Structures are given as C-alpha cells and as structure tokens.
Amino acid sequence: MPNSTICLSFDFDAYSVWYSNGGLVTPNMLQRGEFGARHGVPRVLALLAAYRLPATFFIPGHTVESFPDETAQIIAAGHEVAHHSYAHIDPCSQTLAEERADFECALAALGQHGVRPFGYRGPGGHSAHTLELLEEYGFLYDSSYKGGDFIPYRPRIGDQVSQQQPLVRGREARLWELPTQNEFDDWIHFHFNFEPYRNGTSAPSKVYELWTTHLRWMDKHVANGVLTVLMHPQIIGRAHGMQLLEDFIEYGLNLGVRFCTMLDVAKAL
C-alpha cells in the first residue's frame, strides 16, 4: 500500500498580505489580519493540539515583529516555523539587492525567537535569483512552485523559454520543491474582497470534496505521495474553515495517512 503524507501548512501573514495585495489598504482590511492573529492562530493551535498533529507555519518577518506572542506560541507548541519573506513583497518586483535585504530582515526577525528556518514559501512568486539565494543560505526546501501535486522534485535554475524559442533547461537546484496547488489553498476558496471583487464564499462542503478527493486518489495511485495544504489563519480560522479543517483531518486519520512537518518530509527525501 502507498505510504501517504499530509503536510498542513499555514501562511501567518497578518497585516503584511494586505499591504502587498494591491489597492488601498484600509483599517477594515488590516483587521482581517488582526483576526488571524487574535483568533485564527489560537484556534488552529488548539485543533492541532487536540489531534496531536505537527504543522508548518510560514511567517513573514513583519508578522513576527507585529505579533511576537502569537509567534512564540507557535514555536512553543513544537511546530516548524519557515521563511515567508519580511514584508510579503513579491520578489519579482525587487532587485537582487532588495530581495536579499528583505530575505535577511526576515531571517533576523525569526532569529530573535531562536528560529533558523530551512523551508521557504515565496510571497506571490520567485524572482530569477530566489532559488540561488535559498541555496546560498542552506535551505532544504521550497514550497512555491506548482510543477507537481503529490511528488517532491528538484526545481530547475536558469530555465530559458519564450514565445520565440522552446525550453532550454537549466540545472537542478540543490533543494527540494514541496509543491502545492490552487485547489489546496483556502485563500482561493474563501477570500472575499470588494475591490477588486472576489466572491470568496465557497461552501466548505465543496472544498472538503476537493481536498478529500485529491487525497483519496493520491493514496490509491501515488506511492509515498505528499499532499501539502496551504492555509491562512485569517481565512481558515473562521468557523466554517475550522470545521472543514477538522473534518479533513479526521478523514485523513481514518484513511491511515500520516501528518508531518514539511521539514521532516524534506529531510527524509
């Protein structure tokens, strides 16, 4: 039988995601980030503790400094804390010097809590330099690309492709990619916004069906498959999200799937 793994991951963006989301930042938007810190994180931690499950939290440096108590609670609970930039600015909009400075600011913020991260998730994307930075700083894995769904792989550095020429492949990175997909992202399903308008009112039953269907297929067809679910405390931390997450956890446990941090998966590869 295949040996299936679920990685529960949480992007604890708090305020930072709203500053980088485009458009006017209002107090109402920032309060959504506040909700994630004050209510989402405690609810998620309580649920994980009830089932004795590990998880991976990707935390921007801005969030670490804005909500040090909540960050400390995540660490004290024994969960993995990984790198998610400092200010949630897409590296594609930065120069190499700006990306490096942002990267190091985030490392410094995490270091104040004794955290040396080995995993990274980009805040929206990667620049042409991101993977090389991750190699330089000794990271073991990335979880930003969507070149797979259930199988970790080595992402490539230096690919060249355009409308005028076919793909010229670059070299394989020295770190692993633990991919996720849009279907596994709670933001895609539940993020409501007025401007630009996004409905964000999917029924939890729809998302439960998506997640469990993927998990069931992976468990049947993919040996040593890894399903990485990407969630945000300010999204999944609302009542319908918490019930969805608990139901999904129970489905996985009943299926006999193991739950691991992303770092544990990367170390075992």
Task: Report on the architecture of this protein.
The protein is α/β, with parallel strands linked by helices and 269 residues long. It has helices spanning 16-19, 27-51, 61-66, 68-76, 96-111, 130-136, 186-190, 204-221, 233-236, 239-255, 262-268, and strands at residues 5-11, 56-59, 80-83, 119-120, 141-142, 156-157, 160-162, 165-168, 171-172, 176-177, 226-231, 258-259. It has a single domain, classed as TIM Barrel (Alpha-Beta Barrel), CATH 3.20.20.370. It contains eleven helices and twelve strands. Strands 1, 2, 3, 11 and 12 form a five-stranded parallel sheet that branches. It has a three-stranded parallel sheet with strand order 4-5-10, covered by helices on one side. The longest helix has 25 residues, at 27-51. The two termini are 19 Å apart.
As for the CATH topology, it is TIM Barrel
Helix content: 40-55%
| Overall average pLDDT | 93
pLDDT < 50 runs, ≥5 residues: none
CATH superfamily: Glycoside hydrolase/deacetylase
Distance between the termini: 19 Å
Number of domains: 1
Q: β content, as a range?
A: 5-15%
Provide the succession of SSEs.
EHHEHHEHEHEEEEEEHHEHHEH
Strand segment count: 12
CATH class: Alpha Beta
The number of helices is 11
Structural class: alpha/beta
CATH architecture: Alpha-Beta Barrel
In angstroms, what is the radius of gyration? 18 Å
Shape: globular
Sheet of most strands: 5 strands, parallel
